[in-house]
Amino acid sequence: MLRKTIYSIPFFRRTISKIPLRISLPLLFTAPVIGVVIVLSAIAFLAAQSTVNDLMEQNIGQIQDRIEERLDDLLKVPDRVQQISANLLREGWLDLQNLRSWRKTLFEQIQTFSELSSITWGGADGSSVGIARVPGKNGYQFTIKDKETADKRYEFVCDVNGEMEKEPVASIFYDPRDRPWYKAAIKAGKSTWTDPYTRADRDGPGIELALGYAKPIIDRQGKMIGVMNAELRLGDIALFLEQLSVGRTGKAFLIDHRGRLIATSSGVLLTDSGNYPVIASTAADKQIAAAATRLENEFESYGAIEGRYQLKLDINKQPYLMRISPSEHETGLTWIIAILVPESDFLADIKTGRSQNIKIGGLAVLITLLFGIVMAVISIWPMMDLLAFVDLIQKGNFKQELKLEYSTEFVKLSKQMNAMAAGLRDRMRLRNSLVLAQEVQQNLLPSDMPEIKGLDITGHATYCDETGGDYFDFLRIAGQPDTTAAIAVGDVVGHGVAAAMLMATARGILRSRCRTPGTLADLLTHLNALLEEDTGDDRFMTMLLMTVDAKRKVMCWATAGHDPPIVYDPATDHFSDINGNGMSLGVVKGVVYREQLFTDVQPGQVMVAFTDGLWEAFNKDGEMFGKDRVRNLVRRFANLSAAGISEQINAELLRFLGAKNPDDDLTYVIVKVM
After folding, report:
1. What is the pLDDT of residue 246?
2. 197-204, long-range: CB within 8 Å, 24+ apart, which pairs?
3. How far apart (Å, rounded) are the C-alpha atoms in residues 279 and 260?
């Protein structure tokens, strides 16, 4: 009643509408400001040091957890490589009589396991083969010692695709049996970590330390035939530590049980003058040396550190907090993780912030004390009108207009809110249209999979927008027997409504042409002729047509700028080389396409036709899913049904993308021969 009486006075109404919001709004919070300033000031005085300790412990704990997780992931890699290599040797996939044939396998392994610096085989007869990353360069080094090289090991340069230069760039006298990793594996009689050693391909200034995980390989007769070594550079571990933020000036470092410095975040040299691992207490970094000395005095040995410890120490009269813990890996390697942070990194911010808060709080109390309560009540009124308007918008009433005549800012806000409501009304209409378009396009995709005796078929399509340009279909081509599955997979450049319209057009043309007998090449030629007349220079599509005859055991395909299908035979663990290409549809007039034939169709084979949205998917780190990952998934799950393989591919893609949405449409069709 009071509000209605006051607001009905025209003079009062005009006066309030002229008061700027920058004046009235701060007054709204007068009373809370007074209480908050008093309470926070008291808490700041009582809990400052406790806050510093909590912040330091949380920060250090998070860093320690990150280091442990990274080490766990890193140290698992060599063991996985060893298991793979041992299985390949036992199954005869790696030929001991032809070490040069290992190059492709080793190259695939070092590309897959990017954490490794090298993978090396040392035979019991002194032969050797390996591949290593070239530090600081975009390439690899393939090394070989066999009957052709006599007592020397030849070194060849490989590019990023694994292609090797014909002539070696260097040769050295070399016997793998003299290397530390070979001796360590023979002595242990099982997979073991070596002591840090200098890399065989580096000498002089810039010596690099490496750590090997070596495994003796036993053949089926129980004879030791050699040692496989997977190598990690300690410099790579140090690089990870350098990228961590340890307070402002804090440091992280790793020490082994003999007190040797393994890696640091400060970039300090890890070797002494004799190129041996430096003892942590003698490191060039004075803070790390002082911390290591304290540990040596606190514990009888580094092996006595069995849990997490937190120590306080003074270095150059400055207080530090140090936390240590052993990192015991399942492969048998144990290092000590140490985090060293000065208290000043956190205390300075606390003191500065506390002082500023007191000054600002006192000033705010003095300014707002006289006018706060009255103006706060007045400021609530436009908020109530605004809430009522928003509630109407939420219920779908976009026709209601808002009038806030309390201040110049609120008058402007009224106009903007009314414009927003009109915009929302238009967007809702557009949204409904897109939903309808999405339903129409989904109905264009096959709802049921073909049921053909001898074939197990499934298809999948996911769009990154409401509509997209990817397409797959199961065709009925006149003249084709019932034992034949005819499949189309297409990809329109771009995505969205325009791509969906071109996809729908192509689908209609293709299905219409299928009523007349003809080859797959005839279908593409006809489709290109019609699309070229209606598409511009920036709009085209690729397409793959393929047929699989379950009775005749043959596959035919024709492609218009699209990747050929993947064909995998689990009986031989072999991917067939399916080649072929053609001009994309709608680009050039008069193109004649060519049909190709694959006659080696066998039971158990898996054929996958897909668009580039699958293998060109990128995760948040910029890593691409890749065709090799697709092939590996097909290999791993070839024993499943076509639908089962599809589920595994989708699950792996979701895991790979994480929280990131796909950037492109992705579509694929899987055919498994029964």
Report:
1. 77
2. 198/275, 199/117, 199/118, 199/231, 199/233, 200/174, 201/132, 201/141, 201/143, 201/155
3. 4
396 backbone φψ class: left, alpha, beta (φ>0; ψ -120 to 50)? left
pLDDT single digits (tens) 189-224: 999 999 888 875 544 445 678 889 999 999 888 899
Would you say residue 6 lies in a domain? no
Burial 201-217 (b: 16+ CB within 10 A, else e): beeeeeebbbbbbbbbb
Q: What token pair was written down for 472? A: 């797959």
Q: Where are the beta strands (DSSP E) in 308-432?
A: 309-315, 318-328, 334-342
Burial of 443 (0-12, 13-18, 19+ CB in 10 A): exposed
- CATH number reported for the structural domain that contains residue 647 in this entry: 3.60.40.10
Please check whether residues 364 and 463 belong to one and the same domain. no
E-only strand ranges, 301-449: 309-315, 318-328, 334-342
- Rounded distance between C-alpha atoms, residue 541 and residue 560, angstroms: 8
How many helices (H) and strands (E) in the chain?
16, 24
Q: Is 10 exposed, middle or buried (0-12, 13-18, 19+ CB in 10 A)?
A: exposed
* Residue 653: inside a domain: yes
SS3 544: strand
DSSP state of 449: -
The answer to whether 339 and 63 have CB atoms below 8 angstroms apart is: yes
Spatial CA neighbour of 456 closest among 652, 629, 605: 605
| Predicted TM-score (pTM) of this structure | 0.46
Range of the domain at 491: 446-673
Number of domains in the chain: 2
Q: Which pLDDT score is estimated for 2?
A: 46
Co-location of 342 and 461 in the same domain: no
Residue 357, pLDDT > 70, answer no
